[in-house]
Each structure stands twice: as structure tokens, then as C-alpha cells.
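User: I'll paste a sequence; please echo it back and then give the predicted structure.

Assistant: Echoing your sequence first, then the prediction.
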Amino acid sequence: RNHGILIYRRGKTRVLTRDAENSGAGPVWSPSGRLIAFTREGISVIRPDGSGLRRVTNTSGGTLDWSPDGRRIIFDDLPLTSRTFFISSTRPDGRGLQRLTTNGSSPSVSPDGRWIVFQRAYRRCFRALWIMRSAGSRARVLRYPSGRPICGVEPDWQPAGNAALSKELPELIG
């Protein structure tokens, strides 16, 4: 089965990558539109015209997001030698790899670039929503006004940046 990344623009389709194996999960546009990041035996980037394909990391990335200024790619990362997901960031050229936190996945960067919302297990929530500074500090679980943790998956930010949303997992809530 062929997998790949394609762009549909003005009635035309351009195939950027195509391989027999997983070749392009989770493609995400950079804020400038000049690069597309995706997972392909690690994190890779490519230009929208199909040129400049390069591997950025060798880690098995999953969910990807860009910092608003396009200087960092933030991703969940499962190293080959680990059973623990990390949230990491790197520059689009592959330099400056940083581990931001352990036991986290599905990162989403706030529009102002100051915060990352993500999911991580917490007590009775298999996947609770957490928030941390973009440098990885001050991680805390998000809670309902009642004090219960918010159990949810696939968090994302409102474009204005003053709210995050998620699919709620009501069957996991206390």
C-alpha cells in the first residue's frame, strides 16, 4: 500500500512523497508556508514544491506542531530504546534537539508561542490535558472548576490563543 504526502492547489494535485511504507504521517505546514514537517522514519521537512526533502530527527515522532515563528518543530517522540513518550523540539534544520518533558504526547503550541498543551496520564485519567511553558517548565494538569482533571485527547488552541480545546473522554472521568 502506498502512503505519501500530496498538495491539492487550484484544481491540481502534486505528490510530494510516496513510498511503500509509512511516508508522511501528520503533515503540518510551517507558519510561513515555506516548509511542511511530517513523520517519515523520524521527523522530516520538505518544501511545497517537493524540493529540499531532509530528515530532521531519527526519533519516531508522531504529533507535530510548529512554533508560531517557525523556528522550532515540537513533537511527541518515542525513542527506539524507550517505552516512554517525550515531548521534544528541534529547529527545522535538525539542530538544537531538546527534550521538554517525559510521558507526554500530542503537543499543541499556543498562538503566542508561550505555552504547549498536551496529553499525559494522571491518576484515573489515562489521558489528561496538561499545559507547560514552551521551554518545558511549569507543567500542570488542567482541571474543571470542580477540581477534577480534564481527561481528553488531541488538544488544540483557538487561533486567538485564549482557549484550548480537546475531545473529552467522559468514560474516564471519575
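The mean pLDDT is 81. Residues 132 and 139 are 4 Å apart (CA to CA).
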